[in-house]
Amino acid sequence: MLEELSKHDAEWKAMAIHICKDKYIADDLVNDMYLKLYDSGKSYQQINKWFVYVTMKNIYLNIIKRDKKSVDIDAFYSLSDFYTEDERLDNRKMIVRALNEIDFFDKEILMHIQERSLRKNEKYLGISKNVIYHNSKNAMKKIKETKTIKDYGKDRQKD
């Protein structure tokens, strides 16, 4: 079965790139798809293009779910090497000020998701991972709406 599937490798890779928009992840998707289909016990005749597509899409969704451990505050503010040390320090001070503007629960949720995955927080806090995820999204939304963040954006535009 694998030999027959591999005859269409270029097609599977194009399909995977369509799903994830990244060549390297697409290669992993195709390899995982081969393993998944081989382990499924289906014959080559039972597998069609739609089945392969759905299999790769599900594998990709599982990767996303696994990697969606936390909301990265540094990524939110683009704290990269592009900024000077002083700018990074200013950004961090601004983040702390913004965190102080939101309520305790939202701040705690954001701090916990920086330290642990959603599943580990579910066990640690005794709160459903879905509740933690949605509360973290709401907390990030509240941070974006704080006076500190809004004023910071205006100051940056004037420079």
Shape: elongated
Specify the helix fraction band: over 70%
Low-confidence stretches: 69-83
Mean pLDDT: 76
The strand count comes to 0
* Rg calc: 22 Å
Query: Sheet with the most strands?
Result: none
**Beta-sheet strand percentage?**
under 5%
Quickly give the structural class: mainly alpha
Count of separate structural domains: 2
Tally of individual helices = 10
Describe it:
This protein has 159 residues and is an all-alpha fold. The protein is 77% helix and 0% strand. It folds into 2 domains: 2-67; 73-158, no CATH class. α2 packs across α4 and α3 (23-40) crosses α4 (49-67). The longest helix is centred in the middle third of the chain and has 19 residues, at 49-67. Residues 69-83 have low confidence and may be disordered.
